[in-house]
Amino acid sequence: MGIERRKFLRNIGLTMAGAVTLRLPVVGRAIAGNSHHLLTTRQPDAAWIASLYERGTVTTYLKSRNELQYIGMPVGGIMCGTVYLGGDGRLWLWDIFNKNQEGIEPKEVPYNANVLDGGKKVRSRDGACYIAPSKNIRPLDQGFALQLTYGGQTIIRSFDEASWPEISFEATYPMATIRYADPSLPVAVTLEAFSPFIPLNEDDSGLPVTILSYKITNTGKTPVTATVLGWLENKAAIYSAGDAHERVNTVVNEKNWRGVHATVRVKSGSNEAFSKQYDYGNLCLAALGNKVMVNPQLPAGGLSATSFTMMSAKQAVKGTGEKLTGSVAIRNTILPGKTIRNDYAISWYTPNLYFNNIQGEGRYYTNKFTDAVAVINYVQKNYLRLSRESRLWKDTWYDATLPWWFMERTFLNISTLATTTAHRFRSGRFYAWEGVGACDGTCTHVWQYAQAVGRIFPALERDTRQRVDLGIGQMPDGGILFRGEAEKRPAIDGQAGTVLRIYREHQMSKDSSFLQHNWANIKKAALFIIHQDRNGDGMEDTPMENTLDAVWDGEIAWIVGLCIAAVKAASLMAAEVNDKEFETICNDYTQKGQRNMESQLFNGEYFIHQPDKLKGRSVIGSYNTCHIDQVYGQSWAFQVGMDRVIDKEKTLSALKALYKYNYKQDVGPYIAAHPGGRPYALAGEAGMILNTNPRNEEFPFGVKNAWQLGYFNECMTGFEHQVASHMMAEGMTEEALTLTRAVHDRYHAYKRNPFNEIECSDHYARAMASYGTFVTASGFRYHGPKGFMAFAPALNKDHFKAPFVTAEGWGTYTQKGGQHTLHLKYGTLSLQTLQFAHTGVKLAILEGREAPLHFTEENGFVTLPVGLVRLHAGQSLKITIA
């Protein structure tokens, strides 16, 4: 067997087995022996539900609980490849060499049931790293170590799991804190590791560098000499370098930093042809400061006292068959009770990024840098700002009243941008797979679920809408190729989702220039959707590709509703550009569509798929089943602050049906009875199944044996997050938290990498739908061109605090009773209108103004025109409502 039996058994039963020691909430098992056997589930107990709402503390994984081995937090800069930070502080994986492999570790793992293609194996795109998590992938040797001298003795201790009695990892993406504990030593050591991450600043967040900052405190009573040594093996051109090449380490002395530049070259002749290899490039290991010891070649024989001394050599050269490792070190004398900090950085430069038949090549960072040394120079010169702003964002994000675990899970999936799922060409074009190396073309029907990027780095999404979806990918009839130039046809859900994203990107702009510039093509994209309604009833019914990789016939609730939402967004944009005629066309479509969807596609409990009148159920579809995306259009509407596009009562009924039939506190019995799906949730774990058959129909999906039927029996986190965000918006707070917590617990570090939500390959883009649940938990709505912002917290309403990001700035919103405060931390913020959830308002006062604000009150909200207010970083806006 390819996977060890003990490991496999441990994985499938882990939630149950580890619940006591890990204090993970175990949410029970399915109820048997009733008319909905394997469909209905009993609710978790009151204590477990109460725990979901608790603020709690940062999730901290410990060596003593065996929780470090699978951790791989991306710490390499967005769109710069993948470098993982391990649970013990070592860097691993190193997928920075443009290999474009499928999965972080291409492999096939034997499984106990058929998976999709009928074979009993799980590939990377099937979830291999879910049932057999990757660890310890180290194509190059890298690490740090500590030498301590005190009381007449010298101790050398590597910063790795084997060398310390206890190590803790605080999972606060984008900056992790690791603590090394040994009561026998007179020091406390803390590592802070990150790559600069600053919302709204995609360039400084896209640096190919990892920063490791070590803090050492003398906890003893006598001085301590502490030396922190870092080393890095030269693996430039890791795959293509051979006998004709040699690697070179050169000492670099720059202002306020020193380091080792790791390069590769041909032994004789010109380097020009070799320099075009996909993995060609260089790396740099650096220590910031003026008292740095540098060795171009670490002495052989492992770590010893000699390793911590400075050599006189300025360069070292080795053949590619020999190991060449450079090192840097900083020595400190620390008095009792004092703390020192040493900052290190590792950069890389692998410029030759290519994809077949795609309009773009090279890496974006090559526009600013010529090699890895130039990257370090930039980081050093801007270190105070880069680290301060990155830390400011981390502190701003986690300084909230929402539960810690919730803030972690809803945000950490944006780390997908810092993996080889996502790339940025030299031209500035954003390009991405669905998951690492799987399914190309920045697929519209997958990426349209991902809410995080449009909110944190909106410029990337605006450019993608304009350059790709409304440019490279748009056909004359308005259809958008769902994989850009890698495809020849549109996908209907991707088309609708892209129109909705265009509306989001407009809202996340400072003015209307994006909308005005692209309106003609936006209108064509919306008309394409309207034209897919063949019988004119407002319900799309043209057979077309969708995200479940099939062409479905008939009128399908989740697609119909999504198209209604998209056309509604188009009508709102038409109103803004004063295109009254098209606004009317859109409103006619949405009104008909909503009326007919609610009357024809609602079966009294949930929304369904009405078969094509001629084909019936002879083709694949969801038909009378309970499908996870059935009211997705309304979910999307909440993400962009639109009114209802589907009746509230019927929508709530549908969501309750999903929780009743599709959510499983233990998926084990269900997936055992319904094999064929990929293992994204295992026995003992909770999750929401994609499609269930509450009416017990014999062939609920029409066909008997299509390979896509396996999808219906899976738990895919992107869909789960979408439903959770919708439940949160509709007031189903308990259900939303339960579903989000189910995902969070499935990705506990004891079982697998918490930072790698898997679908079709690792770091799957759809998982970034998780940010949408944060949006609806805050009740955040924003329209930059109109200067409009609103909040309506879904929980902790009397004392609420959470971050916000707008077109030009970000900060914190606080609500205490009738006191509302916007404190801007970064950038600028222009406002004209604010809206808060309040009733019975008698008076509204803006701090600093003598006259009370005019206001209107409707549907539980108070709307406050504040005139034109422009805040700068450090400033606040305070409003009192009584």
How would you summarize the topology of this molecule?
Layout: H1 5-12, H2 14-17, H3 19-22, H4 46-53, E1 60-62, E2 73-74, E3 82-85, E4 91-95, E5 108-115, E6 119-123, H5 128-131, E7 142-150, E8 153-158, E9 166-170, E10 176-181, E11 187-194, E12 209-218, E13 224-233, E14 245-254, E15 257-266, E16 282-288, E17 292-295, E18 315-319, E19 325-334, E20 339-349, H6 372-381, H7 383-398, H8 404-411, E21 422-424, E22 430-432, H9 444-447, H10 452-456, H11 458-472, E23 482-485, H12 492-507, H13 513-531, E24 544-545, E25 551-552, E26 555-556, H14 557-576, H15 580-600, E27 609-610, E28 626-627, H16 632-639, H17 648-662, E29 663-664, H18 668-673, E30 687-688, E31 691-692, H19 717-729, H20 733-746, H21 770-778, E32 781-783, E33 788-791, E34 799-805, E35 809-816, E36 819-837, E37 844-846, E38 856-858, E39 861-872, E40 876-881
Parallel strand pairs: 33-36
Antiparallel strand pairs: 1-9, 2-3, 3-4, 5-6, 7-8, 7-13, 9-10, 10-11, 11-12, 12-20, 13-19, 14-15, 14-18, 15-16, 16-20, 17-19, 21-22, 24-25, 26-27, 28-31, 29-30, 32-33, 34-35, 35-36, 36-39, 36-40, 37-40, 38-39
Short description:
This protein is of the alpha+beta class and 882 residues long.
